[in-house]
Amino acid sequence: MDPVVKEIFAQVSPALPYVIGVYAALWIGLMGYVGLTMSRLGKLEKHLALVEEALAKRG
Amino acid sequence: MDRKKLTYIVLAVACVATTVGFLLAFFVAAPAQMLRTLDSGKGAIMGSGFVSHPIDFGQKIFYFHVPVAIASFTIFFFTAFYGVRFLMTRDRKYDTKSRIATEVTLIFVVLTMITGDLWTRWSWGVWWTWEPRLTTYFIMMLLVIGYFVLRASVEDEEKRAVYAAAFGIIAFLDAPLSFAITRIVPAGSEVHPVVIGVPGGLEGSQLAAFLISMFGMIAFGYVIYQLRYREERAKERLEVLKAALED
Hints:
heterodimer, A: mainly alpha, about 85% helix, rod-shaped, B: mainly alpha, two-stranded antiparallel sheet, 4 strands
């Protein structure tokens, strides 16, 4: 780490944990939304495959 | 390349870029100085309090806030683009694409408003101020919400698609205005910092962290758009197949 940045991080800042916390929470939230969408899509595509198979069996 | 495969590759790139951007922002990028550093240089006023070290840690949210805001402008462009394509072709798939792009825009607009508000409170000591950038972006948020209100209020599918396309195109005009407003208005009447494309804006380590974060956020926007579009297409196909199965 850059020595100047290290020096600054060594200083006590009451706000730093909150800034990192908010940043991380929103970032994780965004990734979580992507994960949920992928999970929903996966279920939907499985369902679709089953319906397609049922239709194919019916000829 | 297969669109599905490309989406997963872009997702991996987005995860890596935002992670690297996060780490660079906090551990490498040079920190900013408080705007209101005391004349003595021994402290700064922050909100209603006094801090002994004049380093602006709140500025770190910049590396999330600005990329998310730029991603919202970029994705909103596709609302207008697919709106134009729909009006030209009357192909329903462009209406779906335009709607999905607006949905993704709304996600990024909400993230921009939350991070922007936190930064405003930290740096300026207020939760909100009717400053040109904030005002035009607030109008953009209302327009994006209005797009969905409009869609929900028109029952006829054809009319709904036409009205939404026209509304989306007009609403998008606010995005370039919001982006450029800090450069247009006379100096002194705005407080939003201009750091992109100006001399002395961002130095090397800051610019690297910012560009990587921005690339990651736009990539996330692309991935969410593709996943949601595939979901909508799958739902439509499922409805058609279910109807065929019932016949």
